[in-house]
Amino acid sequence: MSSEIRILEPKVLWNKFADLNAVPRPSKKEERVIAFMKDFGNSLGLETDIDEVGNVLIRKPATPGMEDRKIVVMQSHLDMVHQKNADTDFDFNEQGIEMFVDGDWVRARGTTLGADNGLGVATIMAILESTEISHPAIEALFTIDEETGMTGAMGLKPNWLKGDILLNLDTEEDNEIGVGCAGGIDVTAIRDYKEEAIPAGKKAYTIIVKGLSGGHSGMDIHRGLGNANKIMNRILFDGFENYGLRIAEIKGGSLRNAIPRESFATIVVDEVQSEAFEYEIAELIKTIKQEFSIADPDIVIDIKATEIPQTIMELGVQEGILKALYAAHNGVYKMSASMIGLVEASNNIAKVTIGEGKIKIECLTRSSVESSKLDLANKLRATFDLVGCEVTATGDYPGWAPNMNSAILKVLDELYQKINGEKAHIAACHAGLECGILGQNYPEIDMISFGPTILGAHSPDERASISSTQKYWGFVKEILSNIPKK
Length: 486
Fold this sequence. Notes:
Helix 6 runs antiparallel to helix 7 (274-291). It is elongated, with a radius of gyration of 24 Å. The protein is an alpha+beta fold. It is 30% helix and 28% strand. Strands 9, 11, 12, 13, 14, 16, 17, 18 and 19 form a 9-stranded antiparallel sheet that branches. Strands 1-2-6-3-7-21 form a 6-stranded mixed sheet, covered by helices on one side.
């Protein structure tokens, strides 16, 4: 399975990535990968510690001649986003990722690849194992649960790290040097409803929205990609307004930090209006497909007759929820005034689950400005409050404010230009890096983020560039050999 990956250059990095990807490592279930990293550190005879929450820290002394350099923390997260295509038979809890080479790209078969942040982890492992690469004293920090709450970074205790500089290896464009990121907060709306018996004379349908690109709900939010939950709600709203459509069940989206690619609904309409309903929905499907013909050309929307379900939502609640989901903001909310081209605030309506008398709507709101984050979260709360939902805001984490006077930024900026003959793109990103949280406990540490080119993160289309990884590996080695003196 990984044989063609293991012969790629740099072999030392790709082999570590293949080793890592053989270990199941879902967020909040990292026991096996924690044990894997502990065994790895011990096998090298290096000081290896695990803290109370499960973060792993491996310390390696400086190579000869580098003892007078500042201590460097190299940091990546162990968990990965688990997404698969609906027709892919795969158990993330038991199976290793099945990878293959596609031209300049490494991909996975029908699942996420785990290059986010597995290539960062593999990079650090390769440095720790090397006996040839020049480097200062290193603290290799492997955090847990970055993708579903950042509980590893949040639980990191003060004084555990001794480093002066932190290299976060979680940026996904090889020409970018990251100096800031967005914070985030989970907004969840829930309520109960009464289930009603289905009157006679109804016809039932399954509506399917799939084939969307999905992707990272921060890094890809500005691309105008389809959100399966919003598209499904548009169809249901139209059917309700014009044909009295009633909802039995909705299951849309999967992860809070992934733009939802699929949604499935079971509905009923009056049988006497079924032909007109089918025609109306077919026309609406054509319109939606045309709207997404460029941004999401592979979208599939199907409507199929099915067996009559047992119950439907009570009418008043259904009307309110459809209107609230239509009104709830999704996508870019505000662009940054201080950094051109940066999304300041956004929301992802990540999951919509309706059935058995329960409604649950899950959103991830991001912003690089705290006040904008709270403003958008309040907008969502107000929207769902109006239809009787109980709305909670949890998992709040801070952004990382750019420091354009950073000493390590100056080192990376000059090195990148020297190596590549052009300047790097210095930017903040609209994703949640752990730097913002780590900076709370370690305010004096000088932080920077960079990495190889990875596209389609958080979706089964995730892919890592082979040539970019080679470029990035050379950059890593140059950085380590040019760390400033204490």
